[in-house]
Design a protein that fits this description.
CATH topology: Rossmann fold
Order of helices and strands: EEEHEHEHEHHHHHEHEHH
CATH class: Alpha Beta
Mean pLDDT: 96
Shape: globular
Distance between the termini: 19 Å
Number of domains: 1
CATH superfamily: Alpha/Beta hydrolase fold, catalytic domain
Helix content: 40-55%
Low-confidence stretches: none
Strand content: 15-25%
């Protein structure tokens, strides 16, 4: 294998230019990392440092997020799955492990259902497969607040939903990092992904997944609680495993990084 390297690049696919980054060992198996709503590819910086000595790691900002273009929405999951395939094709990535957090894991469900030949494994983090009425209403509320008051008005509300009360009270530096990602997210892209989340409905198709799958989530996640993930995701995907990350809410990769790195890294290494 070649030396570890890192490179940020722009990839144009399906008429949209995406901000992307590659790290890790040349010639090693690919791992693709897909971030959450109102995040960007820097969400994964710490995790990349733990796996780049043995994997080739690809990251991209979703349409409307980070350094990627923000075409007018609404967006939907078939669009986001097609985006991911086109980006992988443009990057020359044939088969990859896929790790996604929240909407990133939901895109992973779509890939595993209809394009399982492209995946070595799937780790879906804090990713419920269905949107009940109250869940859909929450994303409409986000659209409304951002439209009327700006992304800044969502920052503290989002932090309180994504992280445990103990972490919010302690206010570690990682929360400022997440706040910055939220307030710098393009409101057009934010509304587009929220529209997709309102229509989330992968549950009836999960039985078609043949990809080795890990359902991973925070013990205290308000949006994707462990019991829902067990019943609506792990329980419907043949052979799926589940790990609950203690002392963490929705953004497990940042709130309990040690436990997340171990669970995700161990699963990758087994597949």
């Amino acid at each position: 294998m070649g030396e570890t390297s890192g490179e940020t690049m722009k990839i144009t696919a399906r008429g949209v230019t995406y901000n992307c980054r590659v790290d890790g060992k040349e010639g090693a198996p690919w791992v693709t990392l897909s971030h959450a709503l109102a995040n960007n590819l820097t969400l994964w910086d710490d995790f990349v440092d733990t796996i780049k000595d043995r994997y080739r790691v690809f990251r991209y900002d979703h349409r409307g997020h980070g350094g990627s273009d923000a075409p007018e929405g609404p967006y939907d999951f078939p669009m986001l799955v097609a985006d991911s395939l086109a980006i992988l094709d443009a990057a020359g990535i044939g088969k990859t492990h896929w790790i996604g957090l929240s909407i990133g894991g939901m895109i992973g469900y779509g890939l595993a259902i209809d394009h399982g030949d492209r995946l070595r494994s799937l780790i879906a983090c804090d990713s419920r497969p269905n949107a009940p009425e109250d869940y859909a209403d929450y994303f409409q509320h986000r659209i409304d607040v951002a439209r009327d008051e700006g992304m800044e008005a969502l920052a503290d509300l989002t932090i309180a939903r994504w992280f445990t009360p103990e972490t919010v009270a302690a206010n570690p530096p990682v929360l400022d990092r997440v706040r910055k990602m939220i307030v710098t997210t393009n409101p057009v892209g934010h509304a587009g992904l929220c529209a997709a989340l309102k229509q989330l409905a992968y549950g009836p198709e999960l039985h078609r997944i043949k990809t080795p799958t890990l359902i991973l989530g925070g013990e205290k996640d308000k949006g994707a609680p462990p019991d829902i993930l067990e019943r609506e995701a792990k329980g419907l995907i043949p052979g799926a495993e589940q790990v609950v990350i203690p002392d963490a809410g929705h953004i497990v990769a940042l709130e309990n990084p040690e436990a997340f790195h171990k669970a995700a890294g161990d699963f990758l290494d087994r597949h």
